[in-house]
Design a protein that fits this description.
Mean pLDDT: 89
Number of helices: 5
Strand order of the largest sheet: 1-3-2
Structural class: mainly alpha
Number of strands: 3
Strand content: 5-15%
Largest sheet: 3 strands, antiparallel
Helix content: 40-55%
Radius of gyration: 19 Å
Shape: globular
Amino acid sequence: MDSDCDSPLGYDAFRRTCPSHTVLEMLASKWVYLVVCALRNGRQRNGALARKLEGITPKMLTQTLRVLERDGLVRREVYPVIPPRVEYELTELGLNLAGLLTQIRSWAEQHAPDIKDARARAIAGNEVGWAA
């Protein structure tokens, strides 16, 4: 940790070389965010997640679950049955993150009309560079 910030762990996300950047990049994915929130209520199979997450492609769901498993946020359990059954659930670390993301999701849902109105006003005011 080569940071001189006030963080007790020595990490400073504002520094270009801080390892926390990789965590922030992972969290910036809309699908990471939504998969974690979807798994907050418990263990689910791939198909159930795909149905809940409208618009996610099978490839993107698989990639997202692999990233979350790699980073210790999701646990994958394979059952030795024919056909194979695979279930996903949040780890303790994932559950901790899910609490934060659920608050952000609630804020987004509550304030979506405000943001939509602000965007419409910006476009109506012919603000250069603004788009829906």
